[in-house]
Amino acid sequence: MPKSAPMINNFSGGELTPRLDARTDLQKYFTGCTILENMIPFIEGGATARPGTYFVTETKNSAKCSRLFAFQFSTVQAYIIEAGEYYFRFYKDSGQIVVAYAAWGTGTAYALGALVTNSGTHYRCLIAHTSGTFATDLAAGKWVATAGATDLAYEIPSPYTEAQVKELKITQSADILYIAHRSHNIRKLSRTAHTTWTLTNFVAAIDVAMTITGATKANPCVVTATLGAGGSFPEAGDSVYIASVAGMTELNDSFFVVAAPNSGAGTFQLSGINSTAYTEYSSGGTATRVQFGTSDNNPGAIAFYEQRFMAGGTNNNPLDIFGSASSDFENFIQDSKDSSSALQYSLLSDKVDGVRWMIGEEYLMIGTQGGVWRLGSSSTTEGLAMDNVSAKRQSSGGVMDMDAEMVQSSVIYVQRGGMTVRKMEWDYATDKYATLDVNRISKHITKGATRALSGIVDMDCQSEPIPILWAVRADGQLLGMSYEPAENIMAWFRLITVGAFESVACISADSDEDQVWEIANRTIGEATKRYVEYFKPQEFFAVFENAFFVDSGLTWDGGATVDITGITQADPAVVSAAGHTFTDGMKVRITGVEGMTEVNLGLTQAYTVANAVSEVSFELDGIDSTEWTEYDSGGTAQQVANTVTGLSHLEGETVSILTNYGAAPAAEVASGAITLTYYANVITAGLPYTYNLKPMKIEPGASDGSSKGKKKRIYRLAVSFFETYGAKWGYDVDSLVDVPFGSGGTPSLFTGDKETDFDMDYETGATVHIQGCSPLPMTVLSIAPSMVGE
């Protein structure tokens, strides 16, 4: 083959399966990569190093898995919820919501999650109440001991085990999050303030409430009740919900199965309930026949559709879809004369393929073990009603038992085997939804080292700055797919970290990027640690010190520089700097002073602030300037440090460090701190990772046809970088050398072309490997190899 200079300026094909290694007939081949690791492909073609993760806190119990999900009340009130075994914790504004301890007091109204101290022990409120005596309240389960004075997290109890939190199905309406699991009745998580959250029962009433007039202390308990207007008495096997009983309060807020009803006497038994040890019944209470809430009668999928709460997939009725009355979400009373009443519809399938997820759009899309369905009104001119329901199967491929996601206008879900991701797209030719394989050319992306380590276990999506579907692989790699269907872009890439990603969730805000949160399982000092972290924004606006390319990292920021207007010739020297916020003991560096140039310092030196007068002046502790040249003009002062504390979560780990002067030598965290060889104004430290880009084997073609199988070599390479400071290049991972970006002084990001000669042997599969590494940014726009054949 003659000399050639192919241009590779588009990586929006993402990382392709090795099985496409010879498919040069595919257009996607020339925009795809063999490796796209810790790099995000742009819709417009280039690829950039993924940002690092900012450490927030350790999960409540690092010995157990937990999960994150989003609560998006508005763009200014967005929360992340940590769901662990029997608890929820909450995050907002890039931090954990915390409360303070107060001394316990009698006669005090305590809210769920309140913290108190009593007799030297710290407690968290599990049940909202007005306190009586502490011992009595504690025995009643209203308090639980915390981990101690440093455990300030606002937390409420939940009924879900470690395994169950991974299986929760979530949907939201306004400030209420609805949570479903087949082993529990539906719950409503409500927020009224940042530290006021409640978890209550969803009561799907199928009849008007009965008024309770008595309840026996017996085995089984027998309830006496009178019917409400228009109501009917329960039958054996019906479920009832009891609330507001006085005296025998053990019955309240619970679901029961009815046994041995006697409508003539107005009584029914509560199956399996021995109330002999309960408190004596006093008065009042209601019993409501309900659709859900008892064993094998809880839905595994929920959604909102046409102003109705939709639920389905109970063990007893796996193919039944239940819809509430219109705009009355807990009213499941069916009335054939009322088009707005509740409804029930059974999917007609040749197999009992239970419902696994639902998502409401133009139709109610339903994923089952055996396929995907659409449900809507049979008459397009009328809304959904009992006598106006139509459901049609769209696909015979089953789905994973996890929620689907809306990414732009597409419903995206995981196929039953866990390895294939599909999207639903309307097909006018067949007049139904087609389910398209979106990782068809990246089949390897969901594959781990073994079957147990393969498949997707959690996912969420972000919209800004580019649409990305995030998916956690069973082995802990975080998969991403840049998605723009209008341009046929479904570009997969992989994120790896020290340890494993276990959960992912996204929240949004006005005029900002969506924030991607994750839980990472890391081994720190031979101990398992699970950390809640979030990814920093992709865009750092070319401000070098804002670059954040470390994991589980933290940033120390000394703040802006202040202008100096005078320095005395005195012992100690007094610096005038209007608007400064320095306090005694801080370290500052002074530069740019004219006249008294002796005061200017290099990177390895700093002054200690003393006798600071807020926003006016401060002394340079121990500095006698009486013999120095007189101050003339100019100069600035800024806070600096050469030691960063607060890194105890990375104790014993070697961290990468970036300062406003460039990358500093790596350091080991000891006693929660690191020490630099110089002072800096901004210091970021965290776990390192590498970013790798390797396009598919470069096949420029030959005069006699394909260049496939013909030996060729790259003898020169040009790479176009954007806002980059560190990178390596080579023809494989073992030949990498540094790209020269210059050194010395305050670093500046490089945008432009870099060229180098390549000493590469003739190969049938010539390609290029570009690599970056924490803590430096790297974006690649194009790769232009100069090639020659034998």
Structural descriptors:
64 strands, 2 helices, mainly beta, Lipocalin, eight-stranded antiparallel β-sheet, flat, 790 residues, 1% helix, Seminal Fluid Protein  PDC-109 (Domain B)
What features would you describe in this structure?
Among the domains are: about 15-40 and about 690-790, no CATH class; about 100-150, Carbohydrate-binding module superfamily 5/12 (Seminal Fluid Protein  PDC-109 (Domain B), Ribbon), CATH 2.10.10; about 170-195 and about 295-400, Beta Barrel (Lipocalin); about 210-290, Elongation Factor Tu (Ef-tu), domain 3 (Beta Barrel); about 560-685, Elongation Factor Tu (Ef-tu), domain 3 (Beta Barrel). The model has no long low-confidence stretch (mean pLDDT about 95). Helix content is about 0%, strand content about 45%. By secondary structure, the protein is mainly β. Strands 47, 48, 49, 50, 51, 52, 53 and 56 form an 8-stranded antiparallel sheet that branches.
Question: What CATH first level of the domain at 168-196 and 296-401 would be assigned?
Answer: Mainly Beta
Count up the helices: 2
Radius of gyration: 32 Å
Give the helix/strand class. mainly beta
The CATH topology label of the domain at 168-196 and 296-401 is: Lipocalin
Number of E-type strands: 64
User: What is the CATH-assigned architecture of the domain at 168-196 and 296-401?
Assistant: Beta Barrel
Percent strand equals: 35-45%
- What is the distance, rounded to the nearest whole angstrom, between the alpha carbons of the first and last residues? 7 Å
Give the % helix: under 10%
Taking pLDDT < 50 over at least 5 consecutive residues as the criterion, the unreliable ranges are: none
Label the overall shape.
flat
Largest sheet: 8 strands, antiparallel
Q: What is the typical, i.e. mean, pLDDT? A: 95
